[in-house]
Specification:
This is SRPBCC domain-containing protein. The chain is α+β, with helices and mostly antiparallel strands. Strand 4 and strand 5 form a beta hairpin.
Length: 131
């Protein structure tokens, strides 16, 4: 199994980062405007990237200001069955975000492309929150 992991440091309180990662307003400004999200265990978040299908992530873990875990239940076939987690910690008003996208079956070209795009996601998250 393969895993993508990235870390970024955001100069903002952890609660602001958590809210951005769990709300329509936040994810709509960072990832895609076409979405349905709710910070609720069991809810299926939906993201439309205009690729001909809806990416669906079931919320399987939420620990406020600490951890978010989603399980992909519909998307590109390489994503289905994978999980995405956001680990959060704060020190001196800087929030560390550790993003993991794991349970990939193999390292493919799509895996490598997604690895790049997750890094860009964290960059947009940082830019949105800090500005």
């Amino acid at each position: 199994m393969e895993s993508i992991e990235h870390v970024n440091y955001i100069k903002a309180p952890i609660a602001k980062v958590y809210k951005t990662l769990t709300t329509k307003e936040g994810l709509g400004n960072v990832w895609t405007k076409k979405l349905k999200v709710k910070p609720e265990i069991g809810f299926v978040n939906e993201f439309d990237f205009d690729e001909g299908y809806i990416t669906k992530f079931k919320v399987i873990e939420l620990i406020e200001n600490n951890k978010i875990v989603w399980e992909c239940i519909a998307s590109d076939e390489e994503w289905v069955g994978t999980k995405v987690s956001f680990g959060l910690s704060e020190k001196d008003n800087v929030t560390t975000v550790t993003l993991k996208h794991y349970y990939w079956r193999e390292r493919t070209g799509f895996y490598r492309w997604c690895n790049y795009n997750w890094a860009m996601f964290l960059y947009r998250l940082k830019t949105y929150i800090e500005n």
